[in-house]
Amino acid sequence: xxxxxxxxxxxxxxxxxxxxxxxxxxxxxxxxxxxxxxxxxxxxxxxxxxxxxxxxxxxxxxxxxxxxxxxxxxxxxxxxxxxxxxxxxxxxxxxxxxxxxxxxxxxxxxxxxxxxxxxxxxxxxxxxxxxxxxxxxxxxxxxxxxxxxxxxxxxxxxxxxxxxxxxxxxxxxxxxxxxxxxxxxxxxxxxxxxxxxxxxxxxxxxxxxxxxxxxxxxxxxxxxxxxxxxxxxxxxxxxxxxxxxxxxxxxxxxxxxxxxxxxxxxxxxxxxxxxxxxxxxxxxxxxxxxxxxxxxxxxxxxxxxxxxxxxxxxxxxxxxxxxxxxxxxxxxxxxxxxxxxxxxxxxxxxxxxxxxxxxxxxxxxxxxxxxxxxxxxxxxxxxxxxxxxxxxxxxxxxxxxxxxxxxxxxxxxxxxxxxxxxxxxxxxxxxxxxx
Length: 435
Hints:
Blueprint: H1 55-68, H2 73-80, H3 87-94, H4 103-110, H5 113-125, H6 127-137, H7 141-152, E1 161-162, H8 163-173, H9 177-192, E2 202-203, H10 216-222, H11 238-251, E3 261-265, E4 286-287, H12 288-293, E5 297-298, E6 310-314, E7 323-326, H13 328-336, H14 340-353, H15 371-383, H16 397-409, H17 420-430
Antiparallel strand pairs: 1-2, 3-5, 3-7, 4-6, 6-7
Helix pairs in contact: 1-2, 3-8, 5-7, 6-11, 7-11, 7-14, 8-9, 9-10, 10-11, 13-14, 15-17
């Protein structure tokens, strides 16, 4: 979803919806990022979340503040009537994934044959509209349909929570109160402008709305009335949802003259130090010609395109898995949802919609690390001097850098990839018991 959650469901960690890798502060509302995490994990086993007392008084003050902001009394009355906190929203907000996510498990769950077929059918249905939107915003239709597919399965899964109730619950809870309170006023503004009714304003537990999951602040900045019916309806109106997404994606730096990246074949002697392990894939950037000189080829063995394009190597499952050269549009996707696997899934789904084959990189059968195993890995890295942060059970940038540093000391491919082999080597070297 645009806005808050890119990290908590971040796949580098699956375990950032939208919140951030490992050290989990919500992004500032001024720079929202779309993208709900597809395929959330099951909720952690826990008892019901207690709601602190005083909600009615809090709502009374909210009503006063909303009126002072110029929101009409009729809208405030309709939206806040009978408002109660939703314990399930707090449960979902507070849960942490037990597992990290593996590349193939994620790709197999998001870029399915059915999703490709459904997306291709919709591209035919909306061919004229998608061409019009591309002319106006410079975002190819296949990418818009890819966002549509991952965010809500083409409008079939937009969330079943009342947005006002969900945002009020999170604003009242207090952990990120200011962010959610601002989003709540934004949602009231959307209602006041007549774009949707209170009953129809449904969304995710975190307040992301519509077929491509916009937070209210993103809606107010980028939503478009594509069909000119005087409403910006991203909930049930596909033209509005697609054009709004194009408007947002254009704003975050999409280059209509380029694609997102490509799967590639690496030479056997490729230096894994050259792979980017930071979320923005910006550590080592070279031209396609320079990568070509290092032996990188397209997956079919053909030379890389002879274009003046800057690219970085990304190895989402380490040195033994598939490899990608990614371009600036890949980084634009990350602004929608800051997750490496999400960005690759969007790019690959868009390619499949255009008729490209499935990925051909090697599949490694492996189970994801549990949270307790990540914590043990971090404790070992810390003891060995490769990590300064306290263990938190989330594989973020500092953990990947720590893994890379450890791998260098052991003359292993320094891909920064955390798996059970690395866990075993680190805990043994650190003199810690395996979890």
